[in-house]
Structure formats: structure tokens, C-alpha cells
Amino acid sequence: MKLMIAAMALLMLGGCATNGQSPWASLGSGSCSKPSADQELALNLADDMANEGKLHASLANLQSLPDALPQVRQRKARAYRLLGRNEAEPLYRSLVGTCMGAAGEHGLGQLAAAKGDNAQALAHMQRAAQLAPTDDKIRNDLGVVYLNQLRLEDARFEFMTAIELKQSDTLAAVNLVTLLIYQDDWGQAAKVVSQLGLSPEQVNQAQARAQQLKDSGASARKVAAVSDAQPLTIK
User: Rounded to 5, what percent of the chain is helix, strand, coil?
Assistant: First the structure.
């Protein structure tokens, strides 16, 4: 195993993941009213601030916009979720059944995953994936839930789907390496690291999460992989 770790270290390439916001335009049924030019500008500014970790400032920019716009509610819900505030859940629930139903189900799944409720997280993530099957963030987070449940083949499928949908975002690649190390498949893990250019830091994170999965066992898993359900991913 030590030889495999050394081989992985030789194969590692530089490169950092950029974990931006899951696209708010992942729509369910119906259509969303288009924001005005001024509203669009405020929404984009709120996005920029949130992606810089300035969540309070992002919320401040959203307060002048009407909550009737689902795009506004989705951004508020995300900021509140990352701040750990209770306002997030009702906002996400208000999106379910609207043109942004996928975002609502995804957010509810992220909240459930953060609480360690994998059953609820899975139900919401599966509905989100049905509504927005090409959203790489949703597919990655569904894979995270499967990994937490040790449904390894299902998790691998979702991570591979997310990688193929958006290879420039290494979020799912780190999770796939986590899964492979958990399985002691060091050769395949080294190949993924080399092909997708993961950094030494990312490989170390994957190793730590794989060990966490092994240590925690099947009954006490909470945070085993990177997911947008965790505030860390926007930093």
C-alpha cells in the first residue's frame, strides 16, 4: 500500500478545484419569470459575493429584490443554508413544484445530508436528479449520499456522470478517488489523479475521507465526502 501511495504522489499534477454555486437555472416544471435588467445585476452581484464567501453581504443585496421571484428565494436559501440558519428549509420548500423544483429538492437534500439523515437526503437528491439530470452538482451530491450509505457502485456511477458532465470541476473526481481508496483500489485511484490533475492536497483529503468511512462503519457516517452541502466548498 505504501508503494501505491508513493506512486500516486509521483503521478499528482497541480490544479485546484473551483467549487462555485450550483446553477440556479436547473429548472423543474413550468417557467420562471425573467428578472429585469436591474434585478439580474443584483442577482449576479449576490452570486459573486456568495462565491467569495461573503454570505451576509450576498443576503443584503438580495433583500431589495422581491421574494416572488424564485431565483431570489433560491439564492437566499443557499446563503442561509451555508450560514447554518433555519430560514433555508422553508425557502427551499417554497421552490418545490415550481420552475425551480430541482433546486428546491437539491437544497432539501443538502440540508438532510448535513444532518446525517441519508434516507431523506437520498429521496430529495433522486427527485432533484430526475428534474435536472444534467446538473453535475446534483449528480455529485447524489453520489455523496450513496457513498455515505456504502452503495459503492451507485456512488461510482453518479461521480462518473458528474465528471463527464463537467470535467473542469474536480469536486466529483475527489469523491471518486475517496471511493477508490476506500476500496483499496490504489491503481485506479492513481489513474484518476493523473488523468484529472488532482493536487496533493486533494488526494490527502480523499485519503482522510476514505479513512473516515472505514473508521465510522456502516452505522455512523455523516461527512464522508465533499459536497456542496458543506460550507467549505465555496471557500
Answer: 65, 0, 35
Q: Check residue 231 and report its DSSP letter.
A: G
Question: What is the pTM for the complete model shown?
Answer: 0.78
Q: What is the CATH number of domain 2-14+34-214?
A: 1.25.40.10
CA angle at 63 for the pair 61 and 69, rounded to the nearest 5°? 105
CA quadruple 235, 23, 110, 134: dihedral positive or negative? negative
Residue that the C-alpha cell 488523468 belongs to: 195
Calculate the CA dihedral of residues 176, 177, 182, 186 and round it to 10 degrees.
Answer: 130
Considering only CA atoms, which of 228, 229, 212 is closest in space to residue 116? 229
> Which of 6-15, 31-40, 87-96, 144-153 is least confident?
6-15
Euclidean distance between CA atoms 95 and 148, whole angstroms: 26
Residue 47 has pLDDT above 90, yes or no: yes
Dmax of the chain from CA atoms? 58
Q: Does residue 7 register a pLDDT over 50?
A: no
Residue extents of the structural domains in the chain: 2-14+34-214
pLDDT tens for residues 110-136? 999 999 999 999 999 999 999 999 999
